[in-house]
Amino acid sequence: MSSPAPQTAAELLSHDRILEQALPLFATEGYGAVTMRTIARAAGLTIGTLYHYFPSKRALYLAVLDRAYGRAARHWSHEVLHGPNDPHERLATYVREYCAFVASHHDFVRLMKREQLEGDAEQMELQARSLFASQYQATVDLFAELAPHRDPTLLAHSLLALVLHHYEVRALRPLFPGYKPEHDDPAHVAEHVLAVLLHGIEPTA
């Protein structure tokens, strides 16, 4: 059952406020622990008003995912990874934009990590189908084009791991020897990831 589209400016404001409040709750407490009543309270709405916008917690969760990540994923899938530019340019654009996104969307990264750790098969399948499938396949397709002699699936996983893990341990990295402030800069990280993917650890000219 889909959610009714907001019709007025006031409805749109309430709709957006619900999604803004729900994301950090899902990220910190997990899908199973968060109740609709908790979300309504955080958004400053009655439970009846919340159900007016979202008929179920699942519908609300899907809307949160789409707002937090879905639009970006569709942009990468349709406009960047499968774009008209040279494949190396497409990869560079994707990695730079992806690093910038992950660096600035802490709650979404935390939510994805929590869902993986909790290991809810239904939730993982929901995320895979509704969020990541198209972007992931487009990434695999690009690597197949760039490096037909390599396993494109492993290359896609390597890219995701290089970016996601780097920001998942953002609180630990300053405690390690050799840490530099630029290691937090997504532009700097993106150039590093591109260099590793395209040239490995061999020195470049």
Task: Produce a short descriptive summary.
This protein has helices spanning 9-29, 36-43, 47-53, 57-80, 87-104, 106-118, 121-146, 152-168, 186-199.
Word description of this protein:
This protein is mainly α. Helices cover 72% and strands 0% of the residues. It is built from nine helices and no strands. Helix 1 (9-29) crosses helix 2 (36-43), helix 2 (36-43) crosses helix 3 and helix 5 runs parallel beside helix 8. The model has no long low-confidence stretch (mean pLDDT 90).
List descriptors.
205 residues, mainly alpha
Write the layout of secondary structure elements.
Elements (H helix, E strand, L loop, with lengths): L8 H21 L6 H8 L3 H7 L3 H24 L6 H18 L1 H13 L2 H26 L5 H17 L17 H14 L6
Helix pairs in contact: 1-2, 1-4, 1-6, 2-3, 4-7, 5-8, 5-9, 7-8, 8-9
